[in-house]
Amino acid sequence: MSQNFERLFDDVCHHARRAAMLTSISALLEWDERVYLPAAGSEYRAEECTYLAGMMHERWIDAKFGDSLAALAESPLAVDPASDAAVVVRRLKHQRDKKIKLPQSLVEELARTAVLGQHAWQEARKQNNFGMFRPLLEKTIDLKKQQAEALGYADCPYDALLDDFEPDERTANIRRALRDLREQLVPLVAAIGASAKRPKTEILKRPFPVAQQEAFGKLAAAAIGFDFEAGRVDVTAHPFCTTLGPRDCRITTRYHEDFFPAAFFGTLHEAGHGMYEQGLPAENYGLPTGEAISLGVHESQSRMWENLVGRSKSFWKFFYPEAKKQFPQALDGVSLDDFYFAVNDVRPSLVRIEADEATYNLHILIRFELEQDLLDGKLAAADAAEAWRDRYRQYLGVGSPTDADGVLQDVHWSAGLFGYFPTYSLGNLYAAQYFEQARKELGDLDAMFARGEFRPLLDWLRANIHRHGQCYTAAELVERVTGKPLSHEPLMRHLRGKFGELYGV
Ligand code: ZN
Fold it and tell me: 131: Cβ–Cβ under 8 A, 6 or more apart, which residues?
């Protein structure tokens, strides 16, 4: 009997690994599209990707695969919920059940609307005219409501959409965490804004030759632990990280000759994502036990290396002499303290992707609140641009003069990605909570960073987070590792400590 189940389990794993192979091939085509593909080749590439998507969907909805998963879920192999077999069956079944619940016509309508939506959004943004995008936003919201109803949910439709990005997380839980964060963050940002102390940010806007930026970025990525034997860095307009196989992780960055932080911190950020991927058990590639838990946990790794490590004083104690060697003219006469303050400039602004560590989560909170209101019908799409402006005034103290810099700022809604935004903030919260715990267990991390020792932190992340794949949910893992549920407090302690010192608040 149990031997039969073991054979069935092997079949299921084989099936899932083959589906993952199609996903990898598709990811390679998409990576190539963003890094190398000549414009004229994009039409045929789109056809290739659509064809592959169809093949992947067929594998997922395969009836025998579904029957096997259902049988295994009730089998002795799934009795211990923490066993690898139980995790694999549970997660695969969860994903398959969702795919089965969505009618083919809705899947196609969502895909079509996402393409049209992004096109309309691009045009509307170029012309700074929200009215041009509004009909597509209304259509998208309507389809996302249908999607949520088809999938089912515990408390609110948003729960169903959130699950694609942050499995098992609840809207109510995020709402609570971000509300607590906002209550403390808004006054801190206001106090920083009122401080007379200001960094000399012009030192970061001098000429930084691209060749040196590239060399320096790669040096730092390798030093913190990104494995270049199993990964590489390329250049794209919008940086990203993608995994093409168990020992093949690709990250990208972009260089601005007259602005140092973009490429350097972008590289650390993507390297952080990449190191998570490189730390997943390679032998489980293609199975849930070899995959990242959620976008929030993924973002916690990138944010930790970018901000908590990369923007720390101790990091620059080690790297600043090298920076001066690479950029002798730009950094001539610039002290470590001035440089450190400049890369930690806090300034309420209109644009999310340029936001600093302190104000970033307020940008996310605004989007999170608005998209819930749009889905609940509390806010009409027609009023979204004005609601956006109101919230920016209220939370960040800045007005939003144009649609392009306001409600049309991000690609997400046009691509149908409702429920994605909060994972950015979850990433910041998880990063701070894990980092605080690592500090408790490893001792003086700052002294280690100042000596260029990053391995102890990476090994800690490998042991506590990476190697588990999806064995635990994000909420389970944070309790297991830190002894507490997700909280805004570690992040607030970090922000108060760091910016209190820099700005004297
Ligand atoms: Zn990221």
Answer: 124
